[in-house]
Amino acid sequence: MKTLPKFLSLTFVAAACCASLNLSTARADDGTQGGEDVDGTEQLDVDINMTPTAAAPAGSSIALSLKAEDEDGTTDAELKLEARGLPAGTYSVSVTLKSNGSTVALGTFNADSSGEAEVEFVTNPEDSEETPFPANFNPLDIAQVSVSDAGNNVLFTADLTNVKTLNGMSLNATINGQPGAGNPNASGTATLSANSSKSGPKGQVIVMGSGFPTRIQLVTFVNNSTVSKKAKTDNNGNFNFNFGPKGKASIVAPGITLFQVTSITLKDTSGNVLMTFNF
After folding, report:
1. Are 123 and 177 in a shared domain?
2. What residue numbers bound the domain in which 75 lies?
3. Which pTM value belongs to this model?
4. What CATH number does residue 128 fall under?
5. Rounded to an integer, what distance in angstroms lies between the CA atom of residue 244 and that of residue 220?
6. Per-residue pLDDT averaged across 1-26, rounded?
7. Distances (CA, A) of 265 to 3, 55, 77, 120
8. Second label for 227, Cα 20 to 30 Å away, from 13, 62, 87, 110?
């Protein structure tokens, strides 16, 4: 895949809105990032050295990189593996999904007599050296990657959900909000930027809006968990607030880091859904 942009920090500007409770007007959160629920742009960039198992040949290594972009529900991605020190032969690559824990076989690659190999799994292959992802596969749903030999022995693994083991990881998204039924013409935007660090994810979420009921308290939920962030609309029904990781665990809500955010929901104090953002 040759068309992916570099994953740089993005600055987003937007306005948002309000509505009363009506879940049928908003897209449902499917519990994972990317996919057809995204109304906006989401970009992920990951680099990691895969961890060898006891079965891995001495001196061998595999470097992994994942670049993925979802724009309005259409994903363009590349998963690249570069191997060194493997015996000549055929190796298989499989992934475990965040959404349901299932395992998906991506394909195979061959190591040459020098022990080197390179394979690229892409959304839209441009030549015979690129391998397509399986149909209806969401690369943003990858939790773990494993490489096995011809005898089905797992040689290398990589956990893409453990920020502290990664060489580098960044996630940037700008998502348009889906209002409830009360103000169907309103609009809203939430922006998320995150970068990996040894102490945990760094970054923030910015939510901006207008057209909401005036001077009301907003209750914020991330992946259906309440965020301890106080925000309210002004005299014109506008709002602008942000929140980021807290504590040693670098979480934005109980058990949730910036890299695990799949939805943000705004409600009033009566529990009425005002707006939902699906990442």
Report:
1. no
2. 46-162
3. 0.81
4. 2.60.40
5. 13
6. 35
7. 33, 46, 27, 36
8. 13
